[in-house]
Give the backbone structure.
Amino acid sequence: LQQFASDMPDLLDAGVDGFLHGRLGPALDGPLAEQIAASGAFLVPNLGLGELRRERVASDSLLQEIVPQSVVDRLGDSFDQRPQTTSSAEQELALRESMGQLLEAGVDILLGTDAGAVPDHFFGYTGHRELEIFVRLGMTPAQAIEAATSKPARRLGLDDLGTLEPGKRADFIVLAENPLDDIRNTRSITRVYQNGSRVDRDSMRDSWLAR
């Protein structure tokens, strides 16, 4: 379902649980944010889909670690050949104001991207970038981390995920630097555990970089 901010009041009245592509901007103002909060709905901004197309992501060292060199080269060539656009200061301000209204109203904001559904929008990488956008627009790093962990798990009814607690699945990453100091420190991954077992990241990296 493709919705715009103007559609949200009627959809809330109809009982929707939440919104994907949250349509941050002037139309998502304080009263609408309060209506979303009052209804108990969540919102997934999904801002990176448009924003990352304006960046030369092929130059990002994080992306270079997770895709073959041939893909990096293709992404760089594609970016260099298309007309470049940038967002305006007015657009940035509108996003910040809209995010601020949502946070003030207490709306549950969740991390989500179009990874896997859109070509060259990669799992993992897009999630890190979305968190960086959240913080740039006014979230604290702690709020951004909750948007990626405990809140989505609770909303999806995944009682064994989302937080580090006895009895839950041990799916987590170990970082070298504190993301509460700088959200980009989520990139400083030293170890990954899935269901309690350490993932062999070196072997995985070697296999896909060799392709």
Remarks:
- The first helix runs from residue 8 to 14.
- The radius of gyration is 18 Å.
- The chain has a mean pLDDT of 93.
